[in-house]
Amino acid sequence: MYQRNVRNNSRSFRRGGGTSFRGIGSRTRLPKKQSNIDISKFINKIIVNEEVEAFIPTTAFNDLPVNDVLKRNITAKGYTTPTPIQDEAIPYILAGRDIVGIANTGTGKTGAFLIPLINKIVESPKENVLIVVPTRELATQINQEFKEFARGTGLFSVCCVGGASISGQIRDLRRRNHVVIGTPGRMKDLFQRRSLDLARFNTVVLDEADRMLDMGFINDMRFLLSHLPKRRHTLFFSATLSRDIENIIGDFLVDPIHISVKTQDTAKNVDQDIVKIAGSDKIDVLQGLLSQKEFTKVLVFGRTKHGVEKLSKILAKNGFNVQSIHGNKSHYERQKALALFSNSQTHILVATDVAARGLDIEDISHVINYDLPNSYDDYVHRIGRTGRGDKKGKALTFVG
């Protein structure tokens, strides 16, 4: 554990004569919703010499029966070997089958549906695809991925999310587009304004479906699906399955292919440990960690919007290169912060759980749970921001 080194670091910060932080989160208490989380679940050491059976894909990207322009774009993005979910799902999607894909976070689900769907539209330009996701950050990220995969194909997309100008989105929807990507609430709003014609979409993707349910979007999801054509191609991706999700699958998918490449709750290449805070100020401990050389790109999770903003301002005041994202930030502010962090112009990002799902930011060295997550499922998705693909990562959770 990090307890001894952390305490030494926190003492050195006190001697530095900086701002006194006593009273700002100096104790860590589990809220009622968190009381059933076993702290031992936050400890999971990487077994360095563990022998893992190598995944052997059935095909390479160059051998896929897709458009040559799309193949060149795949190569330009550095894709050579499909991930397990891509290898399993792409052939079925190309064949027009409904899919239920269950996979750990960071396994390449976006590429698994974008690649075959872009090819589908290229071959049949009258095709229209609706992609529904839980957060504006994930929608923006998928939209960017689409633009990269679709470069030179003549295909266009529109991103429809809350927190951005709805008049601009209405204007964009009037223009030629093949793919609409967005969040359930904004899509429902646009439909009710008669700016989004759901009847024209014969393909729909529901990504991070479990998160949409967690965020209370189940009624909006059902609303959108009920206004789509009865005969359609439906792709459903989730990290977990619940009774509500199974009900949606039963109601809206036709004879789906079930694909599960989920191996365990947390990634094997994320080293997990706890940091005991008893007797120490949390902010001092955090700054001690962030000052260590190996903490090169760090995502820090707080529980509340106010707490995250306050923490980021304290860190900035004390010389740390930090940005924050939370629900009180505008869409532009959040995208700017994410871009700075993604490009390593900012080395620390403090965030609420709005950043826990779907975001694919390269080379995050550490995830720090400054405040405990509300559930173990939230914990899994938080730490899934590091150790992505075949890279190693570390996750630390502050406990009292």
Q: Would you give an account of this structure?
A:
With 400 residues, this protein is an alpha/beta fold. It has 14 helices and 13 strands. It has helices at residues 3-15, 68-76, 84-94, 109-123, 136-149, 166-174, 184-192, 209-214, 218-226, 243-252, 282-290, 305-317, 331-342, 376-383; strands at 99-102, 129-132, 157-160, 179-182, 203-206, 233-238, 257-260, 270-276, 298-301, 322-325, 348-351, 366-369, 393-399. It has a 7-stranded parallel sheet, sandwiched between helices. The chain has a 6-stranded parallel sheet with strand order 8-13-12-9-11-10, with helices on both faces.
State the major sheet. Answer: 7 strands, parallel
Secondary structure tally, helices: 14
Order of helices and strands: HHHEHEHEHEHEHHEHEEHEHEHEEHE
End-to-end CA span: 14 Å
Helix % is 25-40%
Principal-axis shape equals globular
Mean pLDDT: 85
Strand residue content: 15-25%
Unreliable segments of 5+ consecutive residues: 3-35, 47-52
Specify the structural class. alpha/beta
Radius of gyration: 22 Å
Spatial strand sequence of the major β-sheet: 3-4-2-5-6-1-7
